[in-house]
Amino acid sequence: MKLTIENKTTFLNDYYFQTLCLLYFPGEKFREDDPGENASSFLLERRDSGFYCKTVLKAGERTAEGSFFTEGYVPKVTFSESDFAAMALGKAYLNAASKLFGFALPWGYLLGLRPVKRAKYYLDRGYSEQTVEDLFVYDYGVSVQKARLAVETAALENKMLVDTRPNDCGLYLSIPFCPTKCDYCSFISCATPKLLGLIPSYLERLKRDLVETCRVIRETGMRLTAVYVGGGTPSILDPEQLKDLLSCLNSCLPKEHIREFSFEAGRPDTITEEKLQILKSFGIDRISINPQTTNDEVLKRIGRKHSVKQFFEIAKLAKTIGFSVLNADLIAGLPGDTEDSFRKSLSDVMELGFDNITVHTLSVKKSAVLRFSEDGVYDPAGVLARKCVEYAWETLRSGGWMPYYLYRQKNIVGNAENVGYAKPGMENLYNVLMMEEYSTVFSCGAGAITKLVNGSRDQICRLANQKYPYEYLDTDLGIREPEIKEFFSQYS
Ligand SMILES: C[S@@+](CC[C@H](N)C(=O)[O-])C[C@H]1O[C@@H](n2cnc3c(N)ncnc32)[C@H](O)[C@@H]1O
Ligand code: SF4
After folding, report:
1. What is the number of structural domains in the chain?
2. Ligand 1: lining residues by beta carbon, under 6 Å
3. Are 181 and 300 found together in one domain?
4. pTM for this structure?
5. Among candidates 209, 229, 206, which has minimal Cα distance to 278?
6. Using one digit for the tens of pLDDT, what is the confidence trace for 174-191?
């Protein structure tokens, strides 16, 4: 696509225009050498009485125009100049694109991955829930239902965070290995026999980093409240490896303030009764067991190599063993799925007694096998995905599961979102701390990112580890102690 941008303001760069454009044109490449007749264009200018934007969008033979002028517009909250510029651009774009494609985007022109952070920002400054909902609907073009979802989630987060102190922190351990790779997945996960062979040396290095990190947590005066072992698929570890890693954790963790200890078991085909008993005996009180769907045909279609029967058996076993919180992940919009089949998946996990259910929406990233193998799987209108997430929202809320964390991803089908729902008291604090960047989260292992958040929560420093296990093993940068200590000496 050729995009002509005439930007007579200093507020938004070309990248912003392109990112906005991708909302209706996912996966487009912006190329100067595209024939001129296919060019879409934007004109954004500052006038005496506000910002004016006009856009002409083209898709094949079709063309649509839209414009917006902020003159006289009174937003629901105080807007900065750049907010007004973004509004003129966003509204002109939505106006043209909805005519061109015949559907509206649920999140309007909001581009960020964390819309709840924005809702929370305004709630924290004393605006009422109704005002923030109106802001989302009228000023950002968000649908009424998504505005309610964002505000409701932010309000529940605020309740969860009420006892969080500025020096509270989380700890994440990455186990980026899986028995096989699922076709839709773009997470870093090693699944070939050669890479799986790295697990023993990976665990040795991980334990070293863990011990060091726990020491630094103590030395910097942080209070560890939430621990999360994620992946990949941590339950791929064999019973001896599990015991070894958990013993190390048990001996070095500062335990005084820990409120939760979660373990993403994940794939049912990696979980056994013995492993569940080990987790329980080491004090892990929250685990995930993820079906993604309870339709065997869909599981085959997405290359996820376990059966629905395996999921049911492991879920019932975990219930009997008695973990305090069980989480299940579902994905809306999977290829081969239908509305009825998604409804059944949701009702299955509800009936099995999962108090914490995360409803993801399929996102198709470059590194996923699916992108290359399925024609048209990435449907920007995302009719199925949208119906499924709307159904989940209605059904879970009326059943007593409330939304407590939410995030969006690039290339998410139907421009929808991922939402964690939980019965009261069954939420996952770690997810909220990490997603809202509310507290420091120390991370150990390949692909993991430590996020340091200062006491007044207005500075964030990201320290990314090496992406892949073999790089992590090849280059030992340690846990970046000097950077961590410098950050806290500067801001605490
Ligand atoms: C880091 S993955 C690990 C979970 C675990 N390995 C498993 O598969 O059960 C966490 C969750 O992200 C979701 N997920 C992964 N890839 C996704 C994609 N492309 N689109 C939407 N959700 C995705 C799945 O629901 C998955 O359970
Ligand atoms: S979805 Fe889970 S099991 Fe499948 S490849 Fe991704 S991380 Fe591994």
Report:
1. 3
2. 178, 184-187, 231-233, 264, 266-267, 290, 292, 329, 331, 360, 362-363, 368
3. yes
4. 0.94
5. 229
6. 999 999 999 999 888 899
